[in-house]
Design goal:
Elements (H helix, E strand, L loop, with lengths): L1 H59 L7 H14 L3 E6 L5 E4 L2 E4 L1 H10 L6 E7 L10 E7 L5 E7 H9 L7 E7 L5 E4 L3 H5 L5 E8 L5 E8 H50 L2 E10 L5 E10 L9 H10 L3 H16 L9 E6 L1 H5 L2 H12 L6 E7 L8 H12 L3 E7 L5 H7 L4 E4 L1 H4 L9 H14 L2 E4 L5 H9 L4 E2 L10 H14 L20
Helix pairs in contact: 1-4, 1-6, 8-10
Bound molecules: ligand C2E and calcium ion (2 copies).
Length: about 525
């Protein structure tokens, strides 16, 4: 019951988990898009401001070298019109530079420019400084207009102004901004202050870096993790009704499936008591002669007033509800009743499917002994088929039961060989007589399907280990011919005969025997009536 509740809970939580993953991905995508978008807008605005600073520097360049008393009013006038720009003039061999306030000693400014820019070049350059005589104590972006004769105009863009201005496109509570001049160290940053960086607001979820196509600088826009969390919360809020509905739906569906399983388990118990199960037998033939050498017993369930249930389905329900052993024991009783006293050819094999749980339980020895006892008159060779789809535990109990069964003349087959995960491991650990090649590989013959080479591998493996092969699901003559040519000993499939009830089987066997001229009188059992001791 606890397991069922857990499964229902897991089913209900599944949509929540999927929704959270999708929401996270969508919020991520939004963050990428919005940081790219913000960086583009920032670049456009910064380009416009820089173009203005460049134009100012070009305009003022002819004034460099003129007496400062003459140029200072012009510089003050520029600053008055464009308060975020501070222009100064430098002339070669002058120990002073000229600003709006008048002449200033050049040395501190030269020291700033010295490392960063080659002297006497012609053109514009950009430089980020954290402090300068032009905007003391503040970071600034310097536009340097130089001429080959050594004259220069410096236009300083106040860093605070620039970042505040750009901040309109990328608000500080959502984004972190940095402007860097290409080829130079240093950056103008906003949003990395100590107190802020220490908090969660400081963490970044994504960073977009975009280069300006017009000027040598780049802008970095970082999206704060808090923005991502806020977007995720908003998405979660809007999807919440759908998530709740899906959770509820899946939880209820799982509950119904489990309930149906439980009720099917109860019906299996009732079906056994009411005699709703019967067995069909499918002939297994020797591929070289076409002679029938045995049958596989396959269980059928006709529920009163209901459609038939497939055996793989009711056996899987039986397994999960610990009913596989009682059901197989019932199968043994039905086989014993069906075949008791019937005529069967000499040395006839009867294959029955058992589960690994049954093979591990000590009851298997008694159950098989009882079946052998019931068929003592015909003494067919019993073959127990264990599917490779289930894990067969290599416990001492399983190995001991296998040893004792084989010692008593019971054959063991691995069913559906090649479809499990442990084909080789099985063969190394468990002593078996037959491998039943799954019909998946038989149907691949002649189709060029990816499974086709696996069939050849299985055949080679069996030959090396000296284990006989039975091919399942042979439906046409070309498959039979291929398998025969490859040395596969036995086959089973609609080509030879479908599963049929016991009466039909006996009639079929008699007609086969008559056709080959070796029929024994119906109703007459042949073969030694020896029951091998098992337990
Ligand atoms: P399986 O043991 O591999 O049985 C072979 C299945 O292949 C049978 O299906 C049989 O009818 C089908 N078959 C035989 N020849 C052909 C063919 O030429 N073409 C095709 N397409 N199919 C063919 P069935 O009887 O429906 O059984 C399905 C599965 O259910 C079995 O596979 C087995 O895993 C399980 N099962 C059936 N009866 C029992 C049983 O008594 N005990 C246990 N534990 N499992 C059983
Ligand atoms: Ca089988
Ligand atoms: Ca099989």
């Amino acid at each position: 019951m606890l397991l069922h509740a857990l499964l229902v809970l897991l089913a209900a939580l599944l949509p929540v988990a999927i929704a959270l993953l999708l929401i996270r991905a969508e919020a991520d995508q939004l963050a990428h898009e919005s940081s790219d978008e913000a960086a583009q807008v920032v670049i456009r605005q910064a380009d416009a401001i820089l173009a203005q600073a460049m134009a100012v520097s070009d305009h003022l360049l002819p004034l460099a070298g003129r007496p400062c008393a003459e140029t200072a009013p012009r510089l003050r006038e520029t600053s008055g019109l464009l308060p975020h720009l501070h222009a100064v003039l430098i002339a070669p061999a002058h120990p002073y530079y000229c600003s709006g306030q008048g002449a200033m000693p050049r040395a501190p400014l030269d020291a700033l420019l010295h490392d960063a820019l080659p002297a006497e070049s012609d053109g514009h350059a950009l430089l980020v400084v954290q402090d300068s005589p032009i905007v003391p104590g503040q970071p600034a972006l310097l536009v340097v207009r130089s001429q080959a004769d050594g004259r220069r105009v410096l236009v300083a863009l106040d860093g605070r102004y620039l970042l505040n201005f750009l901040g309109a496109a990328a608000p500080a509570e959502r984004y972190r901004l940095a402007v860097t001049a290409r080829g130079h160290d240093g950056a103008l940053r906003r949003g990395t202050g100590g107190a802020e960086a220490a908090g969660t607001r400081g963490r970044l979820a994504y960073v977009a870096t975009i280069d300006s196509q017009r000027f040598p600088y780049a802008v970095q826009v970082g999206v704060r993790a808090s923005l991502l969390a806020e977007r995720s919360a908003r998405l979660l809020h809007s999807y919440a009704p759908v998530i709740v509905l899906c959770s509820l739906g899946l939880g209820l569906l799982m509950r119904r499936v489990l309930k149906r399983q439980l009720s099917m388990a109860a019906e299996i118990r009732r079906g056994i008591a009411r005699g709703e199960f019967h067995v069909q037998y499918q002939p297994v033939v020797a591929l070289d002669s076409g002679r029938c050498v045995g049958v596989e017993a396959l269980m059928r369930w006709n529920r009163a007033g209901m459609s038939a249930v497939r055996p793989d389905i009711f056996f899987s329900v039986a397994e999960t509800n610990h009913l596989a052993v009682p059901l197989t024991r019932h199968l043994f009783e039905l086989v014993a009743r069906d075949l008791h006293g019937r005529w069967l050819p000499l040395d006839f094999h009867v294959g029955v499917n058992i589960t690994s749980e049954h093979l591990e339980s000590p009851e298997i020895l008694d159950d098989v002994a009882r079946l052998s006892q019931a068929l003592a008159l015909q003494a067919p060779r019993l073959t127990l088929e264990v599917t490779e789809r289930q894990v067969l535990p290599g416990t001492p109990a399983v190995l001991e039961h296998m040893r004792r069964l084989r010692a008593a003349g019971v054959r063991l087959a691995i069913d559906d060989f090649g479809t499990g995960h442990s084909a080789l491991a099985y063969l190394e650990r468990f002593p078996v007589d037959y491998l039943k090649i799954d019909r998946l590989f038989v149907s691949a013959i002649g189709t060029g399907a990816v499974n086709a080479p696996v069939l050849d591998l299985i055949i080679a493996l069996a030959a090396r280990l000296g284990v006989a092969l039975v091919a399942e699901g042979i439906e046409d003559a070309s498959q039979a011919a291929y398998l025969r040519a490859e040395g596969v000993g036995f086959g089973q499939g609609f080509l030879f005969a479908p599963p049929m009830p016991a009466d039909a089987l006996v009639a079929w066997l008699e007609s086969q025997a008559a056709a080959s001229g070796g029929a024994a009188p119906p109703g007459h059992a042949t073969g030694p009536a020896v029951v091998p001791p098992l337990a």
